[in-house]
Write a structure and sequence with these properties.
about 625 residues; 33 strands; disordered N terminus; 6-stranded antiparallel barrel; 6-stranded antiparallel beta barrel
Length: about 625
């Protein structure tokens, strides 16, 4: 592997340079159970730089060894932290997965082992030992840390395509990866756990973080308010990337960038000039990834025995993360990770009849079959929180969007949701509906969609626009084949007067004599069977899934259908109407390829009526054909 070879070459030259810089005096240890906090005596060692360096293997670690770690406390420049090695904790991560226990001094003795220090490189006599990756799980007066040996991080291969079995993703129940420490080492049930890599959300409302907290908790992810040095719309590496991410500097994985930012920050462990290692533990344990990789600047480190943490901003993008593994992350400087560019326009009318206000949002989203839909949901919901309308409790939301995927026609989708029309707040329902479209595309069992671009318009109207179908009737109860009939429909708008609409339809010329029914309904009633068929069929291609999405009827219209007694069979993205019983029996044979879903009746479209309002309810009319 390239990183391993680079680390081993020129070892003697690098070790000599380190020894000359340290003057052989790194730390002094005073008396305490683990020794007092290590302190400097002599000159501070020089900062590590990109390039090969000699390594010190875990088998060579001895208690009492003195070293130095590098991490950023403020700004972008890493500072030296004295380290004392406590010992080697064998098989702590699992078989042949050791952890080095150590105690930190200097500023780290005051701040404790903070979130964002993950990946801080540790050196002993100029040799790279590994990355600070773990800390005490509860209150601790000592800055005790666990160090992931560098050998384990070197096992991360850029060509490894395997997928970990326990990733942290939305829709996946994940237990926290915590290490149960032996009582003889730490005692009292205290554990050594991976240092949290909080997701820092910039440009997000407090209400968004609060409402999405259950989603983050389910993943074992800590979401906090964060920052960004500025809106980053271009995910290509910024000029000067060649000198970025030196050992000890802040490194960030970028899930969303632009007018809203979602990042996870840690520290660089090693940089060979092109590829970097960091964190010393997983980010989300996703395996192979294509995620923008950025620099960071630290504003401050919150000192705490309970939950110390770095407050930081993402700065410019300088490369792409390629691997997210148990023992760390690996990225490539100068590489560009493909993302989904999103353009989201929000229109609102604060007062009925008043002027329409408009805001435009642009951002880029990390591509992953489970994370992308969740991030679309998160960002959509957040833009709706930005409306601050006093009429939001009785409002109507409309979303019209276009999803462009490689190899498919652009998908044009729309929906309307009114406040109080469901179990969740309307903005959450709307965001979840939008995310479901990406879920169905990107988690297709046959082929994952390659989303290239997304445009959407969100509209909020200050009135609750909901219309209920109260009743309907026909002018006459008998007709001949081919004859035109007139139906009248009673509609009740929200807090409005009852309205009557007229609808004309022609009886099909080939309709046999007998009794028939006409269904007056909303879109949901007609969409349900085909949507259920799509869920049950795990063999649908991506093109068929996209076709099914495009066939969904709009819920701001009223639909008139003729019900016949022959069944409809839903196969893949096709609705086969008036299927004869013999054909139905053959299609439902367990040995038949694919999976079909049948309904006992067929709804033949007779027409539709646009209402520009959320339509609910249904009515059935009966008539005879002579």
């Amino acid at each position: 592997m390239r990183i391993a070879k680079a680390l081993l070459c020129a070892a003697a030259v690098c070790a000599a340079a380190w020894a000359q810089g340290t003057n052989g005096e790194v730390a002094a240890v005073r008396h305490s159970p683990y020794g007092e906090a290590p302190a400097w005596h002599g000159e501070t060692p020089p900062r590590p730089v990109a390039g090969p360096v000699e390594i010190l293997k875990a088998a060579e670690i001895r208690p009492g060894m003195k070293g130095v770690a590098w991490t950023v406390f403020q700004g972008a420049q890493p500072e030296a932290v004295p380290v004392e090695i406590i010992g080697l904790w064998k098989n702590a991560w699992g078989p042949r997965q050791d952890v080095i226990l150590a105690k930190l001094g200097g500023k780290a003795a005051q701040t404790n082992v903070a979130g964002g220090m993950s990946g801080s490189p540790v050196y002993v006599d100029g040799k790279l030992v590994g990355a600070i990756a773990l800390r005490i799980s509860v209150f601790s007066p000592d800055a005790i840390c666990g160090i992931t040996p560098i050998e384990q991080m070197l096992e991360i291969s850029e060509i490894d395509a395997s997928r970990p079995v326990n990733p942290k993703t939305p829709q996946t129940t994940v237990a926290r990866a915590e290490l149960a420490a032996p009582a003889s080492v730490l005692g009292g049930g205290v554990r050594l756990v991976p240092i949290e890599t909080p997701l820092a959300l910039a440009g997000f409302h407090e209400s968004t973080l609060r409402d999405f907290q259950p989603f983050f908790e389910q993943m074992g992810v800590a979401a906090v308010h964060g920052g960004a040095a500025g809106a980053v719309y271009d995910t290509r590496p910024a000029p000067g990337w060649q000198k970025a991410l030196q050992p000890g500097e802040a490194i960030a994985g970028v899930l969303v960038s632009g007018d809203m930012t979602v990042t996870g920050l840690g520290t660089v462990t090693y940089n060979d000039g092109r590829r970097v290692l960091g964190f010393g533990h997983s980010f989300f344990n996703l395996g192979p990834v294509e995620m923008p990789m950025a620099k960071g600047e630290v504003l401050m480190v919150l000192s705490s025995q309970f939950q110390p943490n770095k407050f930081a901003n993402m700065t410019e993008i300088v490369g792409a993360l390629r691997q997210d593994r148990h023992s760390g992350i690996m990225g490539e400087l100068g590489a560009a990770a493909e993302t989904v560019p999103v353009s989201l326009k929000v229109r609102t009318q604060p007062l009925p009849g008043g002027p329409v206000e408009e805001k435009q949002y642009r951002f880029n989203v990390f591509i992953h079959p489970r994370w992308t839909p969740f991030l679309m949901m998160l960002t959509t919901y957040n833009t709706l929180q930005d409306l601050n309308s006093s009429a939001a409790d009785e409002a109507t939301y409309r979303l019209e969007g276009v999803i462009e995927c490689e190899g498919l026609e652009p998908l044009k989708l729309s929906t309307m949701i009114a406040s109080g029309a469901g179990p969740a707040p309307a903005p959450m329902q709307l965001a979840a509906w939008w995310a479901d479209r990406f879920n169905r595309l990107m988690q297709n069992p046959q082929e994952e969609a390659r989303v290239k671009r997304v445009e959407a318009v969100l509209e909020m109207r200050p009135q609750k626009q909901e219309t209920v179908i109260e009743s309907a009737w026909l002018e006459k109860s008998e007709a001949a084949p081919g004859e035109e009939m007139v139906a009248r429909i009673a509609l009740r708008p929200w807090r409005g007067e009852r309205q009557t609409r007229e609808f004309r339809f022609r009886v099909p010329a080939n309709l046999a004599r007998g009794e028939y029914r006409v269904l007056i309904s909303n879109a949901e009633l007609l969409n349900r069977p085909q949507a259920m068929a799509g869920v049950l069929n795990r063999q649908m291609s991506l093109a068929q899934t996209a076709s099914l999405l495009m066939q969904e009827r709009s819920n701001d219209r009223l639909y008139i259908s003729l019900l016949t007694s022959k069944p409809t069979v839903y196969v893949e993205d096709q609705a086969l109407r008036d299927v004869p019983p013999s054909v139905l029996a053959a299609m439902q044979n367990p040995r038949a390829p694919g999976r079909a879903l049948a309904t006992p009746e067929t709804a033949v479209p007779l027409g539709e009526m646009p209402l520009d309002s959320l339509v609910t309810g249904s009515a059935v009319l009966r008539f005879k054909v002579q």
